[in-house]
User: Which sequence fits this backbone?
């Protein structure tokens, strides 16, 4: 018997000639087509729209579809001195993605992370200049070490998370031998982890750094991945009979991205000819336009999305609380917008036969004040912020979720094990200095940390002496008075809490536990 929560009555509406309603902003109480709780049809000839159903994945079997899965993004970009990567050979890159201002030390703009990993289970650990409250040296891991990546895949298995999209940054692997060395090593370890723990895996290109002149190089890189992994790995994620590859960064202003929708359409076409199915990571308002979406070219964006297999919009920074999620955006709350986005994909599939799936993005929280101290830190609300997103996406009828991110401690979205609030290291710098926020990127004269006069147009920077007057619309503050500490898991919650929550959402998606607006009780 089908888990009929996944049988979309929308198909029946089309079968009877009903029209899908328009998606205007006044539709505050929008509810998508109902999910009928019905038995499998026993009468011959009763029509089921199978593109809107899925069979839950069976452990040990290949991953033939994204439907029914909860996948996370996996950065894998952290490196340390002594880990063997080419990055560790240069002092300005040895703390890869832990660093800010070419260092990894306590203090705002001197490190890039806002969460500290729980290091209790790692095999390889690296000492830092940070100190825990008990006076011991704080340690971190390197994703260049196979053992660290395998531990992460073990956690995916332990908590019922289906797998990950391995991030592959165009600007860090193309024409960049050090970055290519790092990400190739991490990818090889992840493929081993996929096999060992039977987790789904796929590659996602972050298009930051892409421009049309790199078309052939990206295709060559994707060909290597296809030949080495995508066509061979048992647990490589497939959709529509083909291994999936994702491109993140479509729909945004081309003036800021160095490429257009037409440029990415050419790249998509090349990847499809190679044998891939395609997922696109898109701007938040990809369907209706406005906001972060480059609206003048929205028809080309829609054509691009219709040429793909899955669309996944990006939401970090668009809301930072459950209230903002439920009420914000342009359509009376993000759940309404998700419902409209899903309806658009269903309609395209039914009317045009393009089979576009919709994977809403959910994240547990966000914080990157050490890199961007002018941002606002949102609260994780003890997991309620995360659960509210996952519950609403599933209740709207979404069949797949994209979780960001598994391991992104630098932007505070990580779901893996991180330290509790009372146990994080001190972020107090050994010297005091000023942090200057320059939102209009004016040319500012200041005294640098070495005591020399300098000028800059940077948005935020460190200064030895106060900048007076402060930049227009900005500020100048002593670092010691900013009180930017490392974020952490609530002290009465275990460090694996967000891994567990993600696994519970996967169970809810697959009908293993009841639909619930509130977080289930943990046994």
Assistant:
């Amino acid at each position: 018997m089908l888990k009929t929560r996944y049988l979309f009555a929308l198909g029946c509406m089309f079968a009877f000639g009903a029209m899908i309603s328009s998606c205007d902003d006044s539709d505050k109480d929008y509810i998508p087509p109902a999910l009928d709780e019905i038995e499998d049809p026993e009468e011959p000839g009763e029509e089921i729209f199978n593109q809107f159903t899925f069979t839950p994945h069976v452990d040990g079997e290949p991953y033939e579809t994204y439907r029914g899965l909860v996948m996370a993004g996996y950065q894998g970009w952290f490196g340390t001195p002594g880990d063997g990567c080419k990055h560790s050979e240069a002092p300005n890159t040895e703390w890869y993605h832990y660093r800010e201002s070419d260092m990894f030390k306590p203090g705002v703009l001197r490190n890039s992370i806002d969460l500290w990993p729980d290091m209790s289970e790692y095999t390889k650990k690296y000492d830092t200049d940070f100190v825990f409250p008990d006076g011991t040296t704080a340690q971190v891991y390197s994703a260049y070490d196979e053992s660290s990546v395998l531990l992460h895949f073990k956690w995916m298995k332990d908590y019922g998370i289906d797998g990950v999209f391995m991030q592959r940054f165009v600007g860090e692997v193309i024409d960049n031998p050090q970055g290519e060395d790092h990400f190739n090593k991490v990818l090889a370890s992840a493929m081993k982890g996929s096999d060992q723990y039977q987790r789904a895996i796929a590659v996602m290109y972050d298009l930051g750094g892409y421009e049309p002149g790199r078309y052939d190089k990206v295709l060559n890189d994707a060909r290597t991945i296809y030949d080495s992994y995508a066509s061979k790995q048992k647990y490589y994620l497939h959709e529509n009979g083909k291994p999936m590859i994702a491109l993140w960064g479509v729909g945004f202003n081309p003036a800021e991205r160095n490429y257009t929708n037409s440029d990415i359409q050419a790249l998509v076409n090349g990847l499809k000819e190679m044998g891939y199915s395609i997922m696109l990571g898109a701007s938040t308002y990809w369907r209706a336009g406005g906001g972060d979406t480059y609206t003048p070219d929205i028809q080309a964006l829609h054509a691009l999305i219709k040429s793909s297999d899955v669309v996944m919009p990006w939401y970090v920074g668009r809301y930072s609380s459950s209230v903002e999620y439920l009420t914000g955006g342009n359509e009376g709350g993000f759940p309404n917008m998700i419902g409209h986005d899903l309806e658009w994909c269903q309609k395209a599939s039914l009317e045009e036969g393009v089979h576009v799936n919709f994977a809403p993005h959910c994240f547990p929280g966000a914080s990157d004040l050490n890199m961007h101290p002018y941002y606002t830190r949102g609260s994780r609300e003890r997991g309620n912020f995360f659960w509210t997103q996952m519950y609403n996406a599933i209740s709207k009828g979404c069949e797949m979720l994209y979780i960001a991110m598994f391991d992104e401690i630098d932007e505070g979205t990580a779901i893996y094990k991180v330290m509790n609030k009372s146990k994080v290291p001190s972020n107090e710098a050994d010297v005091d200095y000023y942090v200057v926020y320059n939102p209009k990127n004016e040319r500012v004269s200041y005294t640098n940390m070495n005591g020399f006069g300098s000028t800059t147009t940077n948005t935020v920077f460190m200064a030895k002496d106060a900048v007076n007057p402060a930049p227009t619309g900005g500020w100048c503050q002593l670092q010691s008075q900013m009180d930017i500490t490392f974020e952490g898991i609530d002290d009465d919650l275990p460090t694996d809490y967000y891994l567990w929550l993600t696994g519970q959402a996967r169970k809810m998606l697959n009908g293993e536990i009841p639909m619930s607006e509130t977080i289930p009780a943990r046994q």
